[in-house]
Amino acid sequence: MIFAGVARGRWRLAQHQLFPPARAAGTGLGRFRGLVGLALALTFALLVVGALTTVFSRFKASGLGVADAGGALALVLVAAVAGLAVFDLHFAVSALLLDSDLELLRRAPLSPVALLALKLCDSLPRTTALLGVVGLPAVVAFALSYRLPAWAWLALPLQLVALWAVPLGVGIALALWLVHVVPPRRARDALGLLSTLVIALLWIANSFLLPRLGAEGDDLRRRWSGALHAPAALWVASPAHWMAGAVMAAHRRQPAVALGWTALLGLAGALSLGAATLAAGRYLDTALAHAAHPVPRRRQAPAAATGQPRHALRRHVIATLIVRDARLFARDWTVLSDVLVAAALWTLLPLVGAPLHAASPRMVTRAMLLALTVGLGYEVAARSVPFERDGLAWCRLAPVAAWRWVAAKWLGAGMFSLAMMGVAGASLALAFPLGPAEWIETTIVGVSALALSLSLGLWTGALFGDPGWTNPRAMLTLAGRLSASGLLVLQAGAWLGLLAVADSQRAQLPAGALLWGPPVVSGLLCLAPLSAVARWVRRFEWTR
Amino acid sequence: MPDPPDPLRITDLTRRYGALTAVDRLNLEVRPGEIVAFLGPNGAGKTTTLRVCAGLLRPDLGEVLIAGASLRGDSRRARARLGFVPDRPFLYDRLSACEFLEFVGALYDVPGALAWERAERLLDHLELAEARDEPIETYSHGMRQKVALAAALIHDPVLTLLDEPLGGLDPYGARAFKDLLRERAARGLGVLVSTHLLEVAERLCDRVVILHRGRVIADGSLDELRGTRGEATLEDVFLELTRSREDGSA
Lengths: 544, 250
Hints:
The structure holds 2 protein chains of 2 kinds. By secondary structure, chain A is an all-alpha fold. Helices cover 79% and strands 0% of the residues of chain A. By secondary structure, chain B is α/β, with parallel strands linked by helices. At the A-B interface, helix 15 and helix 18 of A face helix 2, helix 3 and helix 4 of B.
């Protein structure tokens, strides 16, 4: 293999991801997709720097030592590594097993290890994104409060590369082994489920940490100091903690200690990539052969011809689209379970923060329902667009008016979401004794927020959906996920803020304002995203 | 009674991708009862033309009429009159062939009983009846192509557009495919098929259109294209015409 020639080709591919050629990009925003993603990533990185700088400067001001700040830094790095495993590991595995150029690369005289190296390079823009927008900014924010010497900055790239390699190498080795022993679809399902479980575990761990931080009757210093002293096991087993250890040692001007942590991290990264290399040598050929074939067909007895039409009645086109979405959704258990777990976590999220604010049952109930409803905009509506994969082309091919397609998507997502909201509402009714009037108000606000979040979710899915998705948690592009996260925070903040104002001004408001106000506000705000989606349906071009 | 409009009439169609003009002032019509072969070297603009006609891409200039309905002005009516088989089928892996055809039938407003009857007939003809209730993700490439053809015909369109439809089909499947297209032409419906299989074009099609760099360089029956070339095959004619253009532009 002529390394320079191959590297040049891959560099061009990376350039095309950022600046897609006209034929692949179509028209409109598609041409700037890469740049939009880059701009959003930069913005997000700056926000992380800003937020963490505030945290670290408060630490310093309240007299917390570098050990506590290092603990916080380690937690942020753990989140970045977990995000890499949950959102982006799939991408590297798909690049290795499903990319369109694999036929060509397999015919070339490349060893499986060289193929692995090429595909790891191909997936770099995606797999390094979280370390770039969370990990690196966290270290920068740390350094703004706790100065680092110049040599620490020289070691940083090596530490980040090692931190990137650990989850990726182990993950790829496991995925190759999995595809070697089970059909690719089962492997994909298993990886999807693993992503969901990691999210759930992180959330549960977080829900133990935050209430401890928010406990009352204690000063900030004692609370954070207790919470951030990680168990010794984490300092032994977590590469993110090793990196934090190296950064802390650098601040303390202890180069030998910093070198020790860095060496440990580098060794883990090398071992992890070694495991991936070993797995590629052993399993890649069979895994590629498995991935190239569809799910095996079960032999069935020929269906008995009934001679009777199953659906003699004409079904309305909106109902047809809803039934199709329901069938697809019900049959993809990884996506279904992911949505259900995410819905439960969104609902419980405000409980984590409740001890911080000594919230009343009414506020907690409202916050829980609102967290669920704004979350469903992303979890259900945004995903319902790329979820169709190549079938999305039918909204351009078939003679169906754009508004009908949008209505069907919105109604289908709404029906599914309302069912989940009903279950959540019933559970909350058992946990929090509210009066009927409070319940009616809370439900009306929740449904109004749901209508708006579904509309915004559809818009996000239409603009940023990736029909070639492989990970149920990453059906949107990185730019899409960042935009969706921003919209979630904005919606939740806006609804809670509006309700707080309405509560404080209740006497001055017209009678029943909390009953008719939210639906009117939501109805008006829905119009813009829904008409944008309809315009997208009329104008988007199918270039896949 | 006036003559029915041509199933397809393309006037001055132009489509650009940035600086590249993929289709350049293309004029083409498919008349009732005609099967037209759409040939050209790779990158000639065939797929782009078919995708514009199917409504998947927007033209920069020009007009496409499907059975008299303008794709730009009367888009829904135009789309209702055409069926499209893409090179990479637009299917839902987790639906069965029956469910998928029922879905497509409803999109095209075909009454349930009639859609069912047509789906049964098409699946039987294409030898998919045995697998009709299995999820499409378990199908081979050829079976997926057959489902895509059945979906394109479920609403009995006036015009059928096919982009490389015979890839992955076994000889039985290819024969069934061609029979269906001939049957449609016999009923006065139009078919435009893009293919690199020149023998298929020679045997199946009434007329051949050759595209080169987005422009039509030949249009006529095989005999007309042969002209003074005696017993030349379509392959000979195709190679000579496209090579002479390459040489001319070099």
